[in-house]
From TrEMBL:
The lineage of its organism: Bacteria, Bacillati, Actinomycetota, Actinomycetes, Kitasatosporales. Its EC number is 6.1.1.19. Residues 9-89 form the Arginyl tRNA synthetase N-terminal domain. It is an enzyme of class 6 (ligase). This is Arginine--tRNA ligase. GO terms for biological process: arginyl-tRNA aminoacylation. It holds the Pfam family Arg_tRNA_synt_N.
Amino acid sequence: MPPVTSLTAHVHQRLATALTATLPEPAAADPLLRRSDRADFQANGILALAKKAKANPRDLATQVVAQVVTDDLIKDIEVSGPGFLNITLTDRAITETLAARAADPADRLGVPLAAHPGTTVIDYAQPNVAKEMHVGHLRSAVIGDAVVRILEFVGESVVRRHHIGDWGTQFGMLIQYLDEHPHELDRSADSAETGEEAMSNLNRLYKAARTHFDSDEEFKTRARRRVVDLQAGDPHTLATWQRFVDESKVYFFSVFEKLDMEIRDADIVGESGYNDMLDETCRLLEESGVAVRSEGALCVFFDDVKGPDGNPVPLIVKKSDGGYGYAATDLSAIRNRVFDLKADTLLYVVDARQSLHFKMVFETARRAGWLNEDTKAQQLAFGTVLGKDGKPFKTREGETVRLVDLLDEAIDRATAVVREKAAKMGLSEEEIVENGRFVGVGAVKYADLSTSAVRDYKFDLDQMVSLNGDTSVYLQYAYARIQSILRKAGDARPVAHPELALAPAERALGLHLDQFGELLLDVAAGYEPHKLAAYLYQLASHLTTFYDQCQVLSDANPPEVVENRLFLVDLTARTLHRGMALLGIRTPERL
Ligand code: ARG
């Protein structure tokens, strides 16, 4: 089935044609159509067009109205104010369009694919080996996962890359220590290791290695030599390094599972994955003159990047001691993503505090010709998670908050909320536990996704698990309530009846449902999941008004009204479910 054209698009087309025919000089004309409370839509574009054509806006509006035929789509069109148009649609057009959305066999709800899909490599969820995941790693994972789902839904080819921190001088000390105490990471073959155990092993090793490093000069020397061995690819050193990576992955996967997020091993290509490219990256930059030698280091300079003393701050691609840093790796990753993975868009879901780094890296890649008009890179920068006091989120002891602790607390709180209502619903203990997870993790994700990514936000669990307001729980309850109505409906099925007149609350709900497709294309084009969250919240609010004003299962309703209202709430539930799934949030059937 072809994608469903929205009512907005239909009306837009009608008005644009009428405008072009009316204007003294033919031109493409945008009627600037908006949803409106007075009628279904208001067109505000005539004012500006009249000014350009030196015409009277009310006259022009009147002429446009004369061109528009009222029919099955447009019930009424009239001039208002200085030259606005108020447009009211027929009830039939609304119900028929929604019926077409509901009938979409692929369960896409009639959402079209993007006009020009391409290949996007998205760099997100990038924790560091042998280190805890903390609240800072939450945002990249949550936003990245939502953007992946949204892009794939509109037809983009997406390659996921988890650029984990698995390389660098810090590993010398760890490798040397483990080599000297090889049994400290022995795993028992029979019992699978938990993520918590893996992390506690890594913490213990890290502390022990650190103590040796700080107190024993000879160990320090041996550890430094290990860095050189690692970079040279010495097999034994690499094997020991690999044990740290594997142990960390056990931990990462356990955290991602708690986050209810699928991370695939094949998509984990850490900093180490670009090691073989670093030499050539530097050679290419130096030969092309993009990078120059400065005080022994290989550097790229920018006119607009200066330190506090007014001197230029370069991007260092290779240090004076010959070592490569973070920038060389990112530049090599760009070459891989553009030339091997054939991406036309590179997206980096990374903390806004790394914006200068990416600005310099992208500019360097452009000068080198690796990025251009057709192959673009963008940082999807996100802000900081703050505590209730408005300062960067810390534990009471002033330490960084571990991601698992934060999720566990959210799940505990949510389970308490779910339990309170559970008795009435007759939920089993198993269902309570599962719903507690979905509600708790959903609350954390939604709070993160419902503010625009660049902004900081306060981590406030009381607010996040509240049943009222702009929270995921509110949306999850809206969904579950519909499912409960559908269960109670007995033999009555959701069936659209285009011949029925609609109540105002039904029209408002229906017109909002019809916007889903256009909204998603917009969300995908701008990488803005927060707009999807806002849309879903409005959808649930329309639903609440609908319940207030229209009874679904009432004996007073003729059967076709019951069917049509069941049809409306069923499509609302499917839209909520689809939208929440695109945000990575579950919608339990019974809550
Ligand atoms: N591992 C880094 C961190 O924890 C983030 C990596 C971001 N991605 C990149 N391509 N540099 O800060």
